[in-house]
Design brief:
This protein is an alpha+beta fold. It has twelve helices and 14 strands. The chain is globular, with a radius of gyration of 24 Å.
């Protein structure tokens, strides 16, 4: 049918070739002022999948944004809120020979500090773009430039609910186990997809987990420290260690191993404990070499004894000092999917009452309810968590080069406790 053919490019309408041709025809009408960035954007536009407008990458002039204001700082730059006046591309308007756009859109602008090398910026952008093919990360709309500082900025999706740590502090008392399991499952699934791309995140912590509504979904952000596993595989050079100390695997801290997929699993285990408890790890002590030493010697956050034993087992397996004993994200995804599916059916329809995960969660909820009934301080679902962090407890990424740390090991009873949990779990009816 002739209606299937775009009258402008003579390609199948809305095909990859059709989209690419329209972008290509516009190449001479814009520039970032940097050849490498221009090439990055143009390559992304030429590789755009048909009907996949969520993945459009653009050069966006800074004057297309209003109400720009700083809302946060990370280890390598600042985050700004902005209103994108025109909003992202919707579809090609044949009649007017231009892209139709959505309504104005709230976005986040990630500005890089001046000391960050452009090649590192492009590496982060490239990895972020790859992870979007799996919808594992925050939307990446394009690139802009601050006209005053000349710093390049990533234009990202804006997360209304902020990051996970902020969310937990305000909303933890309103979270039920259905949401906790859903969040754990979704994180494991997205990290599994990232690992399938042969990418390791290397900086996974609650500050890099974002959402516009944590009850319905979440996304992973900040790939500034991420890498493709095949990049420089034989490099003998010892890498500097950057990150947030409580979430870094002990074998990375000690220098015994480079950052691997197993190190991301360790970080997930620490995050999982935080989702279960609402409390940041090691909040009452300085995040210094002494803490790094303790982590290498087996220190881990405390898991409350009333936590469902199946979840305790999952968390402990993730933060085992023996990296080869940790599960993969494929294994975690399968495990957490079983727990979520069974509990969700109970939560929604009242079935599966006799399954072990349901029994354990009900006991945990009963314990929490009893604690609250005997607590003299009134707590409601809208009461934020009340905790104070040590002034030297630092939850942003930074350089952490500690020398002479011991070879990682587990605490004395860790392996016995974990083995008992695994053995007992194998004997019970999970479903």
């Amino acid at each position: 049918m002739t209606s299937d053919i775009c009258p402008e490019c003579n390609q199948k309408y809305n095909s990859r070739q059709c989209h690419s041709k329209h972008f290509q025809n516009d190449f001479n009408n814009w520039t970032s002022g940097n050849d490498k960035i221009d090439k990055f954007i143009r390559d992304a536009q030429l590789q755009l999948n048909a009907n996949d407008y969520l993945e459009v990458m653009e050069w966006i002039p800074y004057d297309r944004f209003e109400d720009v204001k700083q809302i946060g700082r990370g280890g390598f730059g600042t985050i700004h809120y902005a209103m994108w006046i025109e909003g992202p591309i919707d579809k090609w308007d044949v009649e007017n020979h231009q892209w139709k756009r959505n309504l104005p859109r709230k976005v986040a602008l990630k500005k890089f500090d001046n000391f960050v090398n452009l090649n590192d910026v492009l590496n982060e952008m490239s990895i972020h773009l790859k992870t979007r093919t799996k919808f594992a990360s925050v939307e990446f709309h394009g690139i802009t430039q601050d006209p005053e500082t000349h710093s390049y900025m990533m234009v990202l999706g804006y997360a209304e609910d902020g990051n996970l740590r902020e969310y937990l502090k305000i909303n933890f008392n309103n979270m039920n186990w259905e949401q906790k399991l859903k969040n754990l499952l979704e994180l494991s699934s997205k990290l599994m997809d990232i690992h399938k791309l042969n990418i390791v995140h290397q900086d996974f912590h609650p500050g890099n987990i974002l959402s516009s509504n944590f009850k319905f979904g979440l996304e992973i952000s900040d790939f500034g420290l991420s890498k493709l596993m095949e990049a420089n595989p034989n490099s003998p050079e010892k890498k500097n260690i950057f990150g947030v100390l409580p979430y870094i695997a002990p074998e990375v801290l000690s220098g015994d191993e480079e950052y691997t997929k197993a190190a991301d699993v360790y970080s997930f285990g620490i995050v999982a404990c935080e989702i279960v408890t609402g409390i940041p790890p090691y909040l009452d002590m300085p995040h210094d070499k002494d803490l790094a030493l303790k982590i290498c010697n087996g220190l881990r956050p405390k898991i409350p004894f009333h936590t469902p034993k199946l979840i305790t087992r999952t968390i402990m397996r993730c933060w085992d000092a023996r990296a080869t004993h940790r599960p993969t994200f494929k294994e975690l995804d399968n495990e957490l999917w079983r727990y979520y599916e069974v509990y969700n059916r109970y939560f929604r329809y009242g079935v599966n009452k006799d399954s072990e995960i349901v029994i354990q969660i009900k006991k945990a909820e009963e314990f929490t309810a009893n604690q609250e009934s005997t607590n003299t301080t009134t707590t409601t679902i809208t009461t934020p968590l009340n905790y104070r962090t040590h002034p030297q407890a630092i939850y942003t990424s930074r350089l952490l080069n500690y020398s002479n740390l011991p070879k990682p090991k587990n605490e004395e009873n860790f392996e016995k406790e974990l083995e008992e949990l695994i053995t007992n779990s194998n004997l019970i009816n999970l479903i």
